[in-house]
Design a protein that fits this description.
Helix content: 25-40%
Structural class: alpha+beta
């Protein structure tokens, strides 16, 4: 199985520092991040945004493969994730990831969809690595 990598560099310290994050694939290359991109609205990224994108994409892919295993061949899945960063003591913790899914799947019924989606939520690799509350809200248009 592949090992994927990312890297970060931070110049300066605290609120005045500026970081740059990169991914092995090059999709992110020296993308700016720092205090103002994390806690303000300055352009750039932040770790929570990257985790949200990773969780949404991982869950959606896991659900897609689970649906294929069940014999479904047509439809669309659109997922967003909202990752919450909360103050805990002197530091911070990611406390939850709220997934919102809009699904259109031909020929599926509600209970079957609920079962498959719940399993994908619990078992996608990113869900397994997050030590936070994970919720799933969805709409099914079948």
């Amino acid at each position: 199985m592949p090992t994927r990598s990312g890297s970060a560099k931070y110049e300066g310290f605290g609120k005045d520092g500026v970081g740059h994050v990169s991914t092995q694939s090059g999709v992110l290359s020296d993308q700016k991040y720092g205090f103002n991109t994390r806690f303000g609205d300055e352009p750039g990224t932040n770790p929570e945004e990257l985790i949200a994108a990773a969780h949404a994409s991982c869950f959606t892919m896991a659900l897609s493969f689970a649906l294929a295993r069940e014999g479904f061949t047509a439809g669309t899945l659109e997922t967003s994730a909202k990752v919450t960063l909360d103050k805990q003591g002197e530091g911070f913790a990611i406390t939850r990831s709220d997934l919102t899914l809009a699904a259109h799947i031909e020929g599926i019924d509600g209970p079957q969809f609920e079962r498959i989606a719940a399993d994908a939520k619990a078992n996608c690799p990113v869900s397994k690595v997050l030590n936070a509350e994970i919720t799933l809200t969805h709409t099914l248009n079948g």
